[in-house]
Automatic annotation (TrEMBL):
Keyword Plastid: no
One of the record's GO cellular component terms: endomembrane system
Pfam families: Ras
Record's keyword annotation contains Mitochondrion: no
InterPro entries recorded: P-loop_NTPase, Rab_GTPases_membrane_traffic, Small_GTP-bd, Small_GTPase
Subcellular location as annotated: Endomembrane system
A molecular-function term among this protein's GO annotations: GTP binding
Keywords of the record: GTP-binding, Lipoprotein, Membrane, Nucleotide-binding, Prenylation
Name of the protein described by the UniProt record: Rab family, other
Species this chain originates from: Galdieria sulphuraria
Major place of residence: membrane
Coiled coil residues, start to end: none
Membrane protein topology class: Lipid-anchor
Amino acid sequence: MARSDDEYDYLFKIVLIGDSGVGKSNLLSRFTRNEFNLESKSTIGVEFATKSVQTEGKTIKAQIWDTAGQERYRAITSAYYRGAVGALLVYDISKKESFIGVEKWLKELRDHADSNIVIMLVGNKSDLKHLRAVSTEEGKEFAEKHSLSFIETSALDATNVEQAFTQLLTEIYRIVHKKALTNEKNPSFKPALGESVVVRDPAEDKGTHKKKCCS
Ligand code: GDP
Ligand code: MG
């Protein structure tokens, strides 16, 4: 690690969502601190944690928000989603209800998050092979149907945890980078270094953007 934690090219806010108990907090602690807890400590959850990754020659600092258990009461506030450019939508491969719950979380994102938010569907607890209730195929199909990326992880044995975050961050970076290139004539659109970047339609800046809205 040659660069200090404060040197980065982009800062992306990522939110963790999904039913209670699917492993969101452990995915976060595994990714940012390489720690895993068998006990669920939802009440002492952190607000967010950060970690920088290198991708395509850039340093991306991820600011990853965890729910601290509010999802149990469906009381996640819109502040949680504000400015988020990516979401890891997590279910537990050993709990069918948590997979069924994914629809509800997608609706929550449509209602509260930026319409261009990049979403990755994450089937966590892949280590629980003997208890699997959702096949990899089901997860993949659902993700394809809703144009989401898809990965299976285990916060317990660390399988694919780094990959899940890095893949999401890379996808966001590519979108932002491409938009910056196609908007070179509009320098104000270019994301400033070290600033939180919201992936958005340039038309929005001109006030001509019609928000896709809820039904
Ligand atoms: P959250 O409510 O979504 O934040 O879930 P937690 O991270 O608190 O995890 C809930 C429970 O699932 C805890 O007992 C964790 O130890 C357990 N857990 C989390 N991730 C995994 C995993 O990948 N595999 C297994 N076997 N258990 C996990
Ligand atoms: Mg939690």
